[in-house]
Amino acid sequence: MAGRFALEHRQRLPDLLRGVIIVGSAALGDWKPGRSDVDLVMVVDRRLTSAELTIAAQVHAETKRSRPVDGIYFTEQQLIDGLLDVPAWELMTPGKAAQTVQVGAFPDAYDKWVPAGKTLVEKLSGSAAGGGGGACAAPGSSGEAM
């Protein structure tokens, strides 16, 4: 579902979408077929223009009719700024930082995905996802990649 939603965005809004982050119940292991929707954060290169917002709204409307997927749009900088607004986030575990930025009903659920996230970062970047200690690191630093 999420892949098709992202593909529709790439086809209708080429060169805009940088990545997709699955959040909510699907990311936390609480997704229920027929009841839950799939919530996505669409990471874009820049803020959408009025014309692009109109196209995105059309994709959302068409998707809502056929499958339960929805998305919100952020630039990478907007995501980083949200984390930077959290006092002492660098000292938190990645799961605690994620819970603080996006308050969820299952506060411990984020931590169980940290190992998978590190593995994914390693595979995508071709290097280790950072040192031990479990704390987050500032964007662009050599610490944890979460």
Mind describing the biggest β-sheet? 3 strands, mixed
Unreliable stretches covering 5 or more consecutive residues: 129-134, 137-146
Shape: globular
Strand proportion, as a percent range, falls in 5-15%
How many angstroms separate the termini?
Answer: 25 Å
Mean pLDDT: 74
Output the structural class. Answer: alpha+beta
**SSE string, helices as H and strands as E:** HEHEHEHHH
The DSSP helix count reads 6
Radius of gyration, taken over Cα atoms and rounded to an integer in Å: 16 Å
Helix content: 40-55%
Question: How many beta-strand segments?
Answer: 3
Task: Going across the biggest sheet, name each strand in turn.
Answer: 1-2-3
Annotation keywords:
single chain; 146 residues; alpha+beta; three-stranded mixed beta sheet; globular; disordered C terminus
Chart the SSEs and their pairings.
Blueprint: H1 2-12, E1 17-23, H2 25-28, E2 38-44, H3 50-66, E3 69-75, H4 76-84, H5 94-101, H6 114-125
Parallel strand pairs: 2-3
Antiparallel strand pairs: 1-2
Offer a quick outline of the entry:
The protein has about 150 residues and is an alpha+beta fold. It contains 6 helices and 3 strands. A 3-stranded mixed beta sheet has the order 1-2-3.
